Amino acid sequence: EDPEGAVIDAPTQTRSTDHYVALIDYRESDGAFLLLNSWGTSWASQGLAWVTPAFVQAADNLFIIDIQVKP
User: Which residues of 44-65 are buried (b: 16+ CB within 10 A; e: fewer)?
Assistant: First the structure.
């Protein structure tokens, strides 16, 4: 399911939450990333939310794995 609605901007405060998220898609129209949260389907829209690049940049302990799938 593709969540719809507002894009979540950068948090106003940084805090450690000790959990994992994955960026699983990118939307060129507004530069937002689709985030999959490890908290499960009770968070946001079935565990998914669009976030801004500023949201991603605000993350601490960030590890990036770049996987490109060719059609």
Answer: beebbbbbbeebbebeeeeeee
